[in-house]
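Replying to the earlier thread about multi-chain prediction with a worked example.

Input:
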Amino acid sequence: MATVFRELLLLINNAKIGVNPPKKPFNNIFGNAKGVTIPANKTIYLNPKNTPTEKINNLIHELGHVQLHTNTNQPKTSLLIEELQANLISYFIVIVKNYGIDNHN
Ligand SMILES: [Zn+2]
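Result:
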């Protein structure tokens, strides 16, 4: 589990996406969220109380938000649609990585 998380962090760091601990306690800023993406600086914050599985799930989910929802030139959509899109892209990332599918065409 820790290896998967480290590999994801490498992938994310190579894409110049920040995964930072917040400067204040996470819950004071983001409440009970498992993870949050700040679009303006493409930074992901994960709740330090997440279980190992939650860390991975939420890191991939937030990566989906970074990929889809950090372009300020695109029209804003509803939160519900953004959550669905982030989940869909996170499943896509997992499947492509798990099965070694080359999606660069
Ligand atoms: Zn989300």
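Residues 61, 65, 83, 86 surround zinc ion (CB under 6 Å).

Feel free to reuse this layout for your own posts.
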